Every structure is written in structure tokens, then in C-alpha cells.
Amino acid sequence: VYDLALQKRINNAFPGPYRYGDTITLDILVVNQGNEPANTIEITDYIPDGLEMAPGKNADWDTTGTFPVYTIMDTLRSGEDTLVGLEVVVIHGTSMESWTNYSEISSALNRDGGPFEDIDSEADNDPENDYGAIAEGETDDALSGDGSQSDAATGEDAAEYDEDDHDVARVRVVDLALYKQ
């Protein structure tokens, strides 16, 4: 059984709330929940307009495409996990969603070098086609979803239906402005 899952959190070494200019680390945990090894696991991060990659801090991330990609080259055996960090800077955004950041497993290979066909999720780099990962909801940080989003009611936030190769972290930003007349 092939089964990878991803969980994303803000590193708690520097707890928020955050201000513009703060650099924070997003921790992305990849877990092999199956009984088959996986390798060459690609993680795609969908950085919103309220965050930017910290200059000089993410050398292992490939930034040549539309979205940054990190490749885990080591074999991840059954029951193992690995942690990947992404350092970002908080900047002004255009909406309340400007600090809601998603990551997902975009591809992986099986032990024979073929495509890793996950039992409960589909690896891709499309941020719009994954059920779950609702910030601070039941599907945020869920690792046990079965990917059967067709069984969920529209808009339902149910961990059991979460596509577990995709997760979210919401950066809480303080933006106060005083206006005096």
C-alpha cells in the first residue's frame, strides 16, 4: 500500500502573532503511512501574496517554476517521516487570505522508480483540487483522511474525508492603524 501524508505548521520557536518584516519558519512534515517505500518526493508550496521566501534561507527549494518545489531525495520507508523547513517573510497582502499558506505532495516515486500511486490522495501541483486543509478546522493537520471527498457534504470540514497529502498553515498577522482627527 502506497500512502504518503503531509502536515504543515508554523514552527513554534517564534510564536505569533506576527508583524510585517518578521521571518518565520513553516514546518512541513511528510509521513509514510503505507507499507511501501517512497523516494524523490516533491513538495510544492503555494506561497500567498502576504508571504515571500526569505532571501538566502531556502537554498534547497527550486524556485524556477510558478511555485517553489522541494525534493526529498532520500527513501522514506514505511512508518518514517521527515521534516522540511521553509522560511518566509511576512509582507503586506491584499486580503485576509494573504497569510494562509498551502503545501502539497506534488509527486513521488515507488521503489521501482515508477509513479507512486497513493491509496487516499492524488499527488499533483494543483492548489484547487484537494478536499480539506481548512485553516484551523478539522481537516487542518489531519493525517488520517481517506480522500473520499465525494462522500462529504459541500463545504463540510470533516477530517475523515481529507486528502491528506495537502495541508495549510495560517499566519496570524497584527496590522493596526491609528487614524486621528
Distance between the termini: 66 Å
Q: How would the global form be characterised?
A: globular
Report the structural category: mainly beta
Oligomer: single chain
Number of continuous helical runs:
0
Helicity level, as a percent range?
Answer: under 10%
Strand content: 25-35%
Low-confidence stretches: none
What's the Cα radius of gyration?
17 Å
Mean of the pLDDT scores?
86
Order of helices and strands: EEEEEEEEE
Main sheet attributes: strand count, strand direction, barrel closure: 5 strands, antiparallel
Q: If strands are numbered along the chain, what order do they take across the biggest sheet?
A: 5-6-3-8-9
Question: Would you kindly provide a written description of the structure presented here, covering whatever features stand out?
Answer:
With 181 residues, the chain is mainly beta. The strands form two sheets. A five-stranded antiparallel sheet has the order 5-6-3-8-9, with no helix packed on it. It has a four-stranded antiparallel sheet with strand order 1-2-7-4, with no helix packed on it. It has strands spanning 4-10, 23-32, 39-46, 51-53, 61-62, 69-72, 81-90, 100-109, 166-170. Strand 5 and strand 6 form a beta hairpin. The relative contact order is 0.24.
